[in-house]
Task: structure prediction
Amino acid sequence: MKRHWARFVGGMLAALTALLAFPLAAGASSNSQRCDIRDFGAVSRDESADTDAIQQAVDQCSGTGGTVLVPAGDWSTGTVRLGSNMTFLIDDGAVLSLHPDIALFPETIIRQDEGTASVRAALLADGVTGLRIDGAGRIEGNGEAFWDEDFYDSGLRRPTLPRPGPVIELANCRDTHLSGITMTNMPAYAVRFHACSDVSATGITIRNDPRSPNTDGIQIRDTSNMRISDVDIRTGDDAIVLKSGQRPVDNILVEDSYLESDDAALKFGTSSHVGVTNSVFRNLQIRNSRYGIAIFMIDGGMHQNNVFENIDIETGGRHLRQFPIFIDIDRRDADRSLGRVVDTVFRDMTIMTGGASLIAGNPEAPIEGLSLQNITISVSGPIDLATASSKPRGNIEIEGQRGSVDYSSANAHFALGHIRGLSLNDIAIVEQHGASTRADMFMQDVLYDLPLDSDGVSR
Result:
């Protein structure tokens, strides 16, 4: 059975058509200097860590435009601090493994706008310019070496032991680009861009067990002017997650990629005190994920002027309840102000799911300006939403607060609540196995943004 919903509003969200400029990674430097880690004492396939040799090679090449070469072979490392104006090349056939001794990953302080933070990274760059991390080689995270014994059978939600992460931490960087490499079995976050600008990640492959804890693929925090393209991320936690703690995440382009996650394939995460703005997510294939696209606003910021287009979503994974599209405005704490979600477009999308989409503001802070255009939803094996668990809050430690609303049990393919300025155009719902007991749409406190006729009267 196939049904169409159509209600069109023209002229909305014109600001989203502005031309966005995105950084493109340059090729390796033409400088002929090559700092081969073997020349500094690194030995493939021995039991010792090669950290010192790698760091010496980096120190030799940093600032010269030269290339640090991690050649074919098996190498082991702890924390290495990278520098400006250099290329760190993990060559084809090279496997750079995280050494299982956590002492080789000391807590390192990085700068933030209002203070500092500590990380246990494997490759760390703080305040650099002109850095390339490149190659066809692989970084092996040895994840389980840093978790509690028999973690998957322990019943623990998260490891209790210290572990490296993010494995690649790029903080306060400019003109910094990551390309080509493969990352497997991460012990925590794979890559984080933290307070960076004019950066990119292209051609990256990330493979983690779907059960693996806190193994975000790429985390974008307080970063602007970034392009992610041609990545293939399959992981246990969010594939790509954007968070803004002290400054907006602004002018981000994510395109031409495959995403798969036991949690959210694409997520505006909690801890968004400022917001994600002026960003485009397009030409994406999302598979086997609890959330296709999840937008959480729980810390009082504002997500504004964001477009999601030409995206193919198929939900799945271990969780009974699945959300192809999820938006929620709520509070982390009872005394926190409610945030805003403003001018958001979803268009040219296909969805296959047994779950349902939940898009809800709050009576005190409705979603403002929401456009759903040309979306086809194929429903296969629908679950009983009335018996499903309550709405997710983006973090297992966050509890419901005063004024919280929850329409997750609404028996409809789309649950829409507290919206000002809704535009619907060509929404098709296809039930794979005939008619179900679900309604097409549940709406609570939703106002359409109605067009005006020539006399200035809404119609």
Summary: The helical segments are 51-61, 151-154.
